[in-house]
User: Which sequence fits this backbone?
């Protein structure tokens, strides 16, 4: 716990950690964990346990207040110790980000109707933003928004296609971005709705998110005017509210998962012998675990730093880009080393290490690949230079 | 084609490439491609086509002669262009290595009985060497051999457990290592045999090998004396014959697969637009593809070099270790970049890129993780130094 | 400034930064900056300016109290913005570490005689610990101590050889480790002394430390009993006091230097054009600068974390090993990218970037190469595992 | 020796290697090796020895014929075993490339006057192409040519500035690129000439090239018409002839240097003990040496491949870009590991390892930084894709 983290946050995190290790981890090899995430049935069972333990949605207090980002870091890392942990205690993506967005921007009525059931863990939600590109595939370039929302009296009629929509399959709440005359706008929908048709759920390298990632067609979806979030044209501005925090909670959860993978690899390396000694005593193995220690610590520090920036009320766009790149790439190294240390066992499903490796590979793409973040960081480097040199010429070095 | 590669090799490779691209690749998304490899049914169908095309087991001539290792490199790279290619034309692991071993060491009768059906593509085979370690998992340390073969008149009775036995499930021929009084020995068995029980087939990150990777129990397996390969105690010496070439053919096949993944990524990058231009025109993407070019070329050169060492009759132990490390790690970088270039599509099963990434991750472990090879290379560095300094003291620098 | 850093620390750091940028940086290309560091003459001139600015030894208050490690981080990073900065304001290695050690362990009389002139910036000091190995070269293994100290009435007679003694040439105070009957012990000496003969000053890749790195012979050095630091046999224990903090202040200073190198590279990249645009607008360049941003931030966070551990009174051995590895390797990447961004200018002495690159390469070796730290971290990983499994067997996973 | 290398080449290389190890290496610590390369005096002394050994300019036969590029690879690697070797036997940059260019393009009279003294080792030469950019520094973008050549009767008058001109100081022959009405053109000049003024010799991180790297001003340099190489406007076309081969011979020489650095590091690691055993027996060290083995072999293979492309008469632009990137980056890793293995000794001038590290860092910039090569490789990737898709639309996948 750093000086920016509270005792309350620490206590909740400790409870979540104990719960995830004792109650959630045993389900990791449950056959209901499919390639498109845990089944609805399994989710219900896990949440029942979380509710009993008083740990449902632990980062949102009963009065609707969220823990600080710094405290959330503690709680979500604890939840992430199992790939099933975030689902079990209802802090997974995209729900966590959706709850954050709705908490900040929804009307009271919208909160009652759309937010409350997510917080209670009865509903799952999806965020319909990314669209299939002409060339196929999901995209990082938001200017490509083609889904339209046409006003029809006191309603809107939405049409378009969305790609890579995490959790759409099986969700009860949808937040949908569409283009109105005023620009991009956000809408709330109850799901399922016959006007939102799952074309297919993608088979992806990751498998922790319930509902997987779907391509959906929106065909004449009719939504009442009060189902718009904020005002027409505010879509991108509102989506930004969700952006940096949601990017950061991904980092928190996967840090938890990699911490656990590291524990498993250490345990393996200390028990398994080769060429006459425990493999941890081979520097080739021991050094990998040493590097894991360092990488895991650096991830924690980056996350806590970015969280403290958000807690200070800054938008954190730059900081969360830096953190996303650093953490996702460091965790890939950690997961890869865990696999490598464990040899044949590491590439098998006998432990969660293999799954964590796959999840982190996907994480390096989700919420923007490193290249998009580096691109925007390079722009910032230039922008800062330009602004520091916009003064009279004689200031130039 | 380098100066060490023949026109015949080139012609066979060209035919295999055309066949794999036209006839095999379309099966890549066949539902019979399961997590434990293509089903027996699918294998049969693919081999039917290979037979029609005159391309079954193309690296072994009708007279039983094998192509040179350098020519084999051409052919196996071509076969590897699809994850299904090696199975289709019968050059996959472990059969390719098993055919090589039997061709070099089996008696005529053994060849007729065990080798011929593998070459004809009617039978698949497995190599039962690795054993589960006390701590669980597969191992790189061959001294751990615990399976025993006890003489019983004109027979041997084998007992033990084997782990990570690729293709065991569904194989018709088994080569089994067991410890006799004289030391490690190799045996040939017809499969299935009730005395060889599949405890379970592992779920692994890779999914191209038919039969997957199994843990098997050998319980009182009774084999006639003439089912021993070579003489008692020759097990490790014979296994060595297979070792370097089999390590190298892995490199060949996966080079093919990554070449294809690179083609797919290039195609994607040239078609897909982001931020106003084709993504290949973003240096962040273009540089990744440039690095792929370099890595793929270096893999090719290492493979050809190691093949030429083997063709010169050298054991190639050191060279194949160097090649295994260099190629497996370079191909991981290539596969990872292909995924990254393709973003969401790269982590989905919409192309084979995602599978190739998983396969290559496993390849970094199979046939010895990099660390074991580096360890033996370090020993060689020292050995060479010692032998160059064993002369009188005044020679020391 | 983080929550663990004080306004006082921030104010001192700001003053040091302004001084280093305005007053010290102009000396960077002074011809008195030689390959063995700035000449004594130049050091005197720089310190005169620091004294005038009220910034001599800014991390030690007038009452002898040291700033917290967290505040020291701010000040030393500021000083490090020029390779001459730490010398100018008297926070360089090894003096800074020596002042720390003497402040914690010297008697009042020893402080008056040996510490006071270092703090005032009149004297430089050296730490005589490392010894030449049989095979030549400096070493990370302290068990190799061969220098002896033999009691002779109320004196000690020291004999031995020391290698890689930074700043020995030109120092006025020496702290010398030697083996007495009771074990390793530390002694204080006034320098120069004819019994301590500089065999040679090494030509090294770095060039910022006044006096360079020397090999010295100690021949019948006679020291009074009250020149022993602490008690006989306490040498290693006392040296440990200096170890982690001194390791960390290296990180602080070089972070400053690399921050400045990054500024220079950014400036270059924003001004210089190639192929029709500023090179910062080429992703190949912009991405390198983006990665610098991330690496520099991670270094800062690791340093602040480790400093807060030390401020909490912990020994910080593990944490400073982690920080040394992470920071030295990250700063090497940063310095290398700065060189690369600047092309021909980057490998020339036209800016300090080339020097910073060389200094950081040496830093990766000084205070223990990464491999020694990884080795001790791997031992910690195992130690922690063992201690968590020493409980009854049923606790094992 | 590969199948593309001749016995003659092998024999010459063996003689060069023996000469460099026995006769040249002892001069490595001669005080005449300055920061701007060996002095003219030392060069003369070394060449005297080479002449006596019959090894002056060993890659050019008495009849003026050059060895094949593949054979040249053997010879230049041997010469590069010492940083002084290439100078001693007259195969260093830029002379080697200049001899190649003049051999291909000079008139008989020009050969007699300008080429012969270079081949005989009496003259050194320089290639005046790169110009200082507006923003300062040397450049990879040849479109920036500003030096002019104005016709004046039967003469040309040249004016301009050139930057980073290797070996200009002390050279007797200059090849100068300047812009005529017809475009870029090449001129031959006898040096020194008062119209070519060395503004300054840069202090650079490398120190092997005699004359260092200079910035020169050309002020009304008057050259006779017959001192133009080729025809007006052919400058870039002719420079291209030199480009790929010269890029490749850099790789050859530095491969030799890194091979030697590796030998030194191996010797150190096998002799030096730490923590109870030779450091080579620590995996952390042994693995670095294993990786060196692999990297050195890959460099050799890339060089031989590119050489065989050039020997086949191809321009080799793409291949030499690939090779330059791969080899320069691999050799940097090798040199860095050698430094690291040797600890304090590695960063000192006690062996050539420290120098080789510095030289290779500069090599990563010289002849185009990796980023420029990756940029052109990415263009090639796209170009190839476009050309394979320019056929009728139905061919698209």
Assistant:
């Amino acid at each position: 716990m750093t000086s920016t983290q509270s005792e309350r946050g620490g206590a909740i995190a400790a409870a979540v950690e104990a719960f995830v290790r004792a109650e959630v981890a045993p389900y990791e090899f449950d056959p209901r964990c499919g390639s498109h995430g845990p089944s609805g049935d399994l989710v219900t069972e896990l949440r029942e346990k979380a509710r009993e333990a008083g740990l449902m949605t632990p980062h949102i207090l009963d009065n609707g207040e969220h823990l600080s980002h710094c405290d959330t870091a503690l709680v979500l890392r604890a939840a992430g110790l199992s790939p099933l942990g975030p689902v079990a205690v209802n802090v997974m993506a995209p729900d966590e980000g959706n709850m954050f967005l709705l908490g900040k921007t929804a009307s009271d009525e919208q909160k009652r109707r759309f937010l409350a059931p997510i917080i209670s863990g009865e509903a799952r939600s999806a965020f319909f933003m990314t669209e299939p590109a002409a060339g196929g595939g999901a995209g990082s370039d938001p200017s490509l928004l083609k889904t339209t929302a046409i006003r029809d009296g006191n309603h809107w009629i939405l049409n378009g296609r969305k790609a890579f929509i995490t959790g759409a399959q099986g969700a009860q709440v949808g937040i949908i971005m569409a283009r109105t005359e005023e620009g991009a706008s956000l809408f709330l929908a109850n799901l399922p709705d016959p006007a939102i048709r799952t074309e297919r759920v993608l088979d992806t390298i990751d498998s922790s998110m319930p509902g997987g990632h779907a391509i959906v067609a929106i065909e004449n979806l009719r939504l009442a005017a009060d189902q718009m979030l904020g005002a027409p044209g505010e879509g991108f501005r509102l989506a930004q509210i969700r952006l940096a925090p949601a990017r950061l909670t991904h980092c928190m959860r996967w840090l938890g998962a990699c911490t656990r993978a590291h524990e498993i690899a250490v345990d393996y390396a200390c028990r398994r012998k080769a060429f006459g000694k425990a493999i941890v005593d081979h520097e080739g193995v021991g050094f990998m675990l040493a590097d894991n220690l360092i990488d895991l610590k650096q991830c924690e520090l980056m996350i806590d730093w970015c969280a403290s920036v958000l807690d200070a009320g800054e938008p954190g766009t730059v900081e969360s880009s830096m953190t996303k790149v650093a953490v996702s790439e460091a965790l890939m190294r950690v997961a890869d080393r865990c696999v490598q240390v464990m040899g044949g066992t590491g590439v098998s499903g006998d432990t969660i290490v293999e799954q964590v490796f796959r999840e982190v590979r996907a994480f390096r793409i989700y919420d923007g690949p490193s290249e998009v973040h580096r691109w925007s960081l390079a722009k910032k480097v230039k922008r800062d230079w330009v602004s520091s040199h916009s003064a009279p010429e004689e200031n130039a070095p």
Summary: The mean pLDDT of chain C is 94.
